[in-house]
């Protein structure tokens, strides 16, 4: 009996050590995955910072940020990035005017009014839009949206900001609708029932109770959608064109920051030149803007977060 008890104890100890070894191995692998993500992010930031620093040794920061003429590849060269920023903001505003109201309305319908059968059909169909390649959206803008706009406004150029804004708005729509839907459905059912008990209608409950309660998630979805629109590349490159100009006319060709990066990255610009380093200067500015918007989203979440018991 003592020998059997000792054997069981040894076996149990071996199993425990094996279990702990396996746990430590899993923990180490997970740590490596997390560390790799952090290392990749830091590497990107370091490359952007170094190349941007090399660029700003040749071009003044004020000339870059405040200049209104962007011709880094043509003589006489000018490195004012404002036309690219203006083009990017034009696309973001136009896309937001489409994605935010339509996405919020779609989310309200799916979360508050649609039956379970309708929801099971509509939500997957809506999210299919997120799986369409962006280059397809670009050609859709050229072959369908632009001719449609030109039929209404004959002065529309082949490449224009309006068609780019429309297709980017359609691209961002699934993200906005999905995030808003999740935020609305996270509101406790007790708030709805309490409002119904006071005699409120379905519309009043949605507008005055559910939507304010989900404001943090809704606002965060708006900011994230705008960040997604800022970083869009291929659809904007194909639809908006490559003409950096500061204009409020959505029927004219413009160029965004991402479209310029694509243009210079094609390989025609020698590596190490100031023209080549403009890629990293523009990318660093784009990274800073996106980071700022993400910080704003976090502040909005912290400011409007509701805690339910």
Brief write-up:
By secondary structure, the protein is an all-alpha fold. Helices cover 75% and strands 1% of the residues.
What would you say this structure looks like, in words?
The chain starts with a helix and ends in a 5-residue tail after the last helix. It has twelve helices and two strands. The longest helix is centred in the N-terminal third of the chain and has 55 residues. The protein is mainly alpha-helical. The protein has a two-stranded antiparallel ribbon with strand order 1-2. The chain folds into two domains: 56 residues; 235 residues, MetI-like fold, CATH 1.10.3720. α1 packs across α12, α5 crosses α6 and α9 runs antiparallel to α12. Helix content is 75%, strand content 1%.
Overview features:
309 residues, MetI-like fold, two-stranded antiparallel ribbon, globular
Which regions are unreliable across 5 or more consecutive residues at pLDDT < 50?
A: none
- End-to-end Cα distance, whole Å, is 56 Å
Structural class: mainly alpha
- Described by the principal axes of the CA atoms, the overall outline is globular
Instruction: Report the CATH superfamily of the largest domain.
Output: MetI-like
Order of strands in the sheet with the most strands? 1-2
Count of structural domains = 2
What is the oligomeric state here?
single chain
Describe the sheet with the most strands.
Answer: 2 strands, antiparallel
């Amino acid at each position: 009996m003592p020998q059997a008890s000792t054997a069981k104890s040894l076996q149990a100890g071996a199993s425990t050590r094996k279990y702990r070894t396996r746990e430590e191995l899993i923990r180490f692998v997970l740590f490596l995955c997390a560390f790799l993500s952090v290392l990749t992010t830091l590497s990107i930031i370091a490359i952007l910072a170094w190349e941007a620093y090399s660029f700003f040794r040749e071009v003044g920061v004020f000339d870059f940020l405040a200049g209104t003429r962007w011709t880094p590849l043509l003589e006489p060269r000018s490195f004012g990035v404002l036309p690219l920023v203006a083009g990017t903001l034009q696309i973001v505003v136009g896309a937001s005017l489409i994605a935010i109201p339509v996405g919020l309305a779609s989310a309200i319908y799916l979360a508050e009014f649609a039956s379970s059968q309708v929801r099971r059909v509509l939500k997957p169909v809506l999210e299919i839009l997120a799986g369409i390649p962006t280059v397809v959206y670009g050609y859709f803008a050229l072959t369908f949206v632009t001719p449609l706009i030109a039929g209404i406004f004959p002065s529309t150029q082949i490449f224009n900001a309006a068609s780019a804004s429309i297709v980017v708005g359609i691209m961002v729509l699934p993200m906005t609708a999905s995030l808003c839907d999740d935020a609305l459905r996270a509101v406790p059912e007790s708030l709805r029932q309490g409002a119904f008990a006071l005699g409120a209608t379905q519309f009043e409950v949605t507008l005055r109770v559910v939507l304010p309660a989900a404001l943090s998630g809704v606002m965060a979805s708006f900011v994230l959608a705008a960040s997604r629109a800022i970083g869009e590349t291929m659809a904007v490159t194909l639809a908006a064109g490559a003409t950096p100009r500061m204009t409020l006319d959505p029927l004219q060709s413009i160029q965004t920051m991402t479209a310029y990066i694509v243009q210079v990255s094609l390989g025609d610009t020698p590596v190490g030149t100031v023209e080549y380093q403009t890629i990293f200067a523009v990318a660093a500015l784009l990274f800073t803007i996106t980071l700022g918007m993400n910080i704003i989203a976090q502040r909005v979440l912290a400011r409007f977060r509701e805690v339910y018991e």
